Amino acid sequence: MNRALGKVGFGNRSLSSSTADATQHCVLLVREKDYSSYLCGLLLEKSLKPHYFAVMAFNIETAIIKDSLRGGVHANTSPAKLRISWWREAIEEVYDGMLSDQKRAQPVVAAVARTIEDKRLTRRFFELMIDAREADLALQQKVSVEDVEEYSEKTHASLLKLCLEVVDVRDDGSDHVASHLARGIGIANAIRSAEVRRGARSEATSRVGG
Question: Does pLDDT of 8 surpass 60?
Answer without folding.
Answer: no
